[in-house]
């Protein structure tokens, strides 16, 4: 069997070599001697070229037909616009029936109001109301246009000059709403590629501004200077391109979420060491801190030129609405064209601008109101020092007195429920109006929730005493199981 | 739609090119001169790198006196414009104490509530005395007064929805509501010419944003089909929800949105609709209820209706009207409700009085008169301008009418010449409009009388001839036509 195959193979090979040794094969073409193996090589090359010209096999792409798209659209079912409504979503806040001064009327009863940030007691001030009435009679209520299209009224320009003179800066910009100030200022200066170092306890307005700016944002531990220094170090070491990238530190003077006060002199020292610019939100410290109410810079003894950008909402100490931003001439001029909340929105109603001017006048003429505020804060702090189950976490000089649970139940939700019960009972039984810190689902801050009391210069000693007594009593009964 | 003739496009591009070249030349010389001076930035990066504010420094500053003109009286039909002067070629402007009385064709005063009103102002003063200009508190804490609850019910009734929620500023309404309604995994489809507040709100929400061609329901349908079939980018999972955002009247075009067709498309594909009626609430519609009434759309078909009180009601602030559950959810979680100072009580009272006048509940028919007058005024003004040969955009019944200017040199020419003849107009250029399509925008008010409008038309016609913006042939006046027929 094997020998037969061998014989056949040998015969075929002989026949092939005879065929290749045929006279045609011995031709000389172009000086190349045509030999047997040359023909096979040419054939192989021809086969290789043929395969290369074949297209590679890809599975065919079939776009969706109209009918298939119709089916997909039919079966797609969207979620509802709102999640299912729970019990806590139905809670209604109490409705005021009078001005939000130190004493207000809720449900026909007079209550002591610790829920409005009326630090200088200017709600209900006669002079302010008179200037507003003149303004309404002259200019109407609204300003009917953005600043660039005949919405600039002379009271706006007067207000800007007044605030700038009060603080000692060259110029200022007026915004039409407190919260939109900070989230328009930050994207106007910080663009993609810039570095921002912010405190983790900043409020939602600042967080939204940071998100809209599309810069790289790094948070440091709340009011912790060592954490700030190490973060600044980490962001700048090895980065020699300081000339091109802009760098900012964003902090609040008095934090709404905890009542702490930022140590400005430390921050300025760090900022100069690492070459960062400082953005300071003074909503709750303008008109409160400092010998004459000029804010955190005066309180810490820092010259105002060292802070690059100061923003503040006027809805707190000045008892009006709106906000302002101030800094060097370059900072202010830049905002007039590139700050979206300034350019694309109607300007502040003129009567609120005149109210702001009158309020700053009042503050300049009566610095004693700050003394009254400071003594009230001290009294309240002393009175609330030994509330069972709650502990004060705010700075001794902060006008927001912040109480949190000594021992948290473990979840923010149950904490909030307990605190809400305390606040409700304090209002119903003792007519003292305090509020808890409610957090939105969009808020990224994780600091503990608590009860906030906004102290005003208009509160009397008996008001403060009443509040402390009432809180002690109700907290003792509500938190009895926890203690 | 804007039809841009070729010659105009060429000349406009040439003008911008010339301005750009001059600007670059000046920048070059500035850099040379500054080389010798020391830089005192001390290692900080500059606030604005060279090219970022090129447009501001070299183009905008030349015509800065046409923008931001201060006024010294209420923005009514006639107002006092403060004169300004400049010593350094428009880089800084200084106020004087002189004022000129001008006809106001630029403020958003559609129903004439801008100045002190005989019914509204006494109520506003009363509320000032009772509630003070500010509440210093957020709505959830101690900022809700009886006025706020009254206005929320009144707005809901006026607009035709079950419930409403108020905010202190229109811009914040959009920026804070859209993130609360939709987040990552959702899709927002917005009109290409939507306002900056909507763009910011959409960006802040984290959802994917797609744009459809302005006012084009068939393109919207295409985009919807494509997006639903494809799903989320990269993972191709189905979208969680889709919201389509449109505006009632587009403020730079003056045209109404094609609401019935867009609602039909959204219903077919189960997308939610969000209607921003900033310019149309109170100004259009037989009883002032906005675009829905004008175009015959049932308010129940639009999921969320948003509006502002700045334009037609002479106050400030914004609202959202939707179903009871959505409003309850928003009151629980919307950041503008939880963290922002509540609306000033006198401003709330102004809106309450204005809505009562519009509905006729104050006992007179001033509301109906105002609505009829603004419709008459807008239609009269628009038809006269078109007869004169100007290129005017916008639909009938809309009180906003842009007049096309195109060329950058015509912007300051038109604005300054009109001011010299005591008519105050608003001119808009890049970046609020596309680069080649600069325009002057007229806003008509119900407080303009027929004589005011005729004076305005005369001045605009004269200035239009001087500046050369009558791009269409004018219709000859009627007696000339009759004479030609006789000959």
TrEMBL record, chain A:
GO terms for cellular component: endoplasmic reticulum membrane. It is an enzyme of class 2 (transferase). One of its GO terms (molecular function) is serine C-palmitoyltransferase activity. GO terms for biological process: ceramide biosynthetic process; sphingosine biosynthetic process. It holds the Pfam family Aminotran_1_2. The keyword Acyltransferase applies. Residues 110-470 form the Aminotransferase class I/classII large domain. It is a single-pass membrane protein. It comes from the Eukaryota. The keyword Transferase applies. Keywords: Acyltransferase, Lipid metabolism, Pyridoxal phosphate, Sphingolipid metabolism, Transferase. Its cofactor is pyridoxal 5'-phosphate. It catalyses: L-serine + hexadecanoyl-CoA + H(+) = 3-oxosphinganine + CO2 + CoA. Its EC number is 2.3.1.50. It is found in: Endoplasmic reticulum membrane. Pathway: Lipid metabolism; sphingolipid metabolism; Sphingolipid metabolism. Serine palmitoyltransferase (SPT). The heterodimer formed with LCB2 constitutes the catalytic core. Belongs to the class-II pyridoxal-phosphate-dependent aminotransferase family. Heterodimer with LCB2. Component of the serine palmitoyltransferase (SPT) complex, composed of LCB1 and LCB2. PANTHER family: CLASS II AMINOTRANSFERASE/8-AMINO-7-OXONONANOATE SYNTHASE, SERINE PALMITOYLTRANSFERASE 1. This is serine C-palmitoyltransferase.
Automatic annotation (TrEMBL), chain B:
Its EC number is 2.3.1.50. It catalyses: L-serine + hexadecanoyl-CoA + H(+) = 3-oxosphinganine + CO2 + CoA. It holds the Pfam family Aminotran_1_2. PROSITE patterns: AA_TRANSFER_CLASS_2. Coiled coil: none annotated. The chain crosses the membrane at residues 6-25. This is serine C-palmitoyltransferase. It is a single-pass membrane protein. PANTHER family: CLASS II AMINOTRANSFERASE/8-AMINO-7-OXONONANOATE SYNTHASE, LD36009P. One of its GO terms (biological process) is ceramide biosynthetic process. It is found in: Endoplasmic reticulum membrane. GO terms for molecular function: pyridoxal phosphate binding; serine C-palmitoyltransferase activity. Residues 101-460 form the Aminotransferase class I/classII large domain. Pathway: Sphingolipid metabolism; Lipid metabolism; sphingolipid metabolism. Its cofactor is pyridoxal 5'-phosphate. Belongs to the class-II pyridoxal-phosphate-dependent aminotransferase family.
